[in-house]
Amino acid sequence: MEKVKLPIKVDPVRCANKRLDYQGVFAAELMPRLAESTQGIHGDINVSLTFGTDAQGLRIMSGKAGVDVTLQCQRCNEMFDTTIESEFTYTPLREDAEAPELPEEYETFEADEFGEINLAQTIEDELILALPLVPAHENEGCAEGKFDLSYGELPEAEERSNPFAILEELKRK
């Protein structure tokens, strides 16, 4: 499938009314904050978006984004490559409108004065939120992770009698 560059700004209401679907990429250069948060971005950011209307009549934008990045392991300080993926659902709100009761998985965004949102910035925000708080290799792949952090063995707990067993015996009498 051919990689198509996505528009940077879209009108979510108009896209939802037309029930548009987008599948394409954003160039890594459009994501400077993501590049600062990682040790490098490999390739383009793959994005799949669906615009529509939900059962409540809310216009929504849902989608997935993914990118391959290099992170620094916080245990061994070595670099490792990983894939960052995010799934999201947004609904636009007007500044003057009162927020309706939204499902828990919906996020909101405000459009600019032309009714558009910066799609590249929204995707970048989602990918930054999907980054691990403490990046680390899997234990098998990490130079420091192979050392087991447990020292010694725990003794097995003794079987203790139930303190309420006496009450149970009295109840039977």
TrEMBL record:
<dbReference type="InterPro" id="IPR039255">
    <property type="entry name" value="YceD_bac"/>
</dbReference>
<dbReference type="GO" id="GO:0042254">
    <property type="term" value="P:ribosome biogenesis"/>
</dbReference>
<dbReference type="InterPro" id="IPR003772">
    <property type="entry name" value="YceD"/>
</dbReference>
<dbReference type="Pfam" id="PF02620">
    <property type="entry name" value="YceD"/>
</dbReference>
<comment type="similarity">
    <text>Belongs to the DUF177 domain family.</text>
</comment>
<keyword id="KW-0690">Ribosome biogenesis</keyword>
<comment type="function">
    <text>Plays a role in synthesis, processing and/or stability of 23S rRNA.</text>
</comment>
<protein>
    <recommendedName>
        <fullName>Large ribosomal RNA subunit accumulation protein YceD</fullName>
    </recommendedName>
</protein>
<dbReference type="GO" id="GO:0005829">
    <property type="term" value="C:cytosol"/>
</dbReference>
